[in-house]
Design a protein that fits this description.
Length: about 220
């Protein structure tokens, strides 16, 4: 039995449905609404959510986000899985715990590993330095909150910092379930300090998390 079929079957066990689900969602002022009842549009919306998520997303989370029945979302997940497998994409959609997550396809892992290890021998990019600063002054912090502060997606940069052992994951945020990150002893060594308390007083220059809209977090 294919993985795509397995994913589609999860809708039956979940039993989650949205009553009176709208067929379109207004994506913002001046932007045409998206017809999420259209399978192709729904697939793209679900894939976008999976791409930016901190961790696995459960079926009911995805259904609530796109305001469509779980059966339709499960079908979209199955179609995404089948399409990625059909073209041998560099990433694949797999079940993770009670949810679903995009992963690097195993056959390409050596290439990704070599790329990340090569990055360890080079200087950090400006984006990596900015992300590292946010972690250092706001730790422990989730990727979603780092993104909210920097205003960009930080998934790739976080992977680089993890590979260089400058930050590490230390648990889950109790409110969002996203992974929490903090700096490591390697970071302290590179900075020539023994504690983050010795960092220069730059924290006041960063926005307070409680000033950010909840939608950004």
């Amino acid at each position: 039995m294919s993985q795509a079929h397995d994913i589609a079957e999860t809708a039956n066990a979940d039993g989650f449905q949205l009553a009176d689900s709208p067929t379109s969602v207004d994506a913002g002022s001046g932007t045409p609404s998206m017809d999420l009842a259209e399978p192709a549009v729904l697939r793209s919306a679900v894939e976008a959510l999976l791409f930016v998520a901190d961790g696995p997303l459960e079926l009911n989370q995805l259904a609530a986000a796109v305001q469509r029945p779980a059966t339709e979302v499960a079908q979209a997940l199955a179609e995404i899985t089948a399409e990625l497998d059909r073209r041998g994409a560099g990433w694949q959609l797999r079940p993770a715990g009670t949810g679903f997550r995009l992963y690097t396809r195993e056959r390409y892992a050596p290439i990704v590993e070599a790329f990340l290890l090569d990055g360890q021998r080079s200087k950090l990019s400006q984006a990596a330095l900015e992300t590292l600063a946010v972690v250092a002054y706001r730790q422990p912090v989730t990727r979603a909150r780092i993104s909210a502060i920097r205003g960009v997606n930080v998934d790739g940069v976080v992977r680089t910092l993890l590979a260089r052992e400058l930050i590490t994951e230390v648990g889950l945020d109790p409110d969002t379930g996203g992974g929490l990150y903090r700096t490591t002893s390697t970071f302290l060594e590179k900075m020539g300090i023994s504690s983050v308390e010795e960092l220069p007083s730059l924290a006041p220059l960063l926005p307070e998390l409680d000033t950010l809209d909840s939608d950004e977090l």
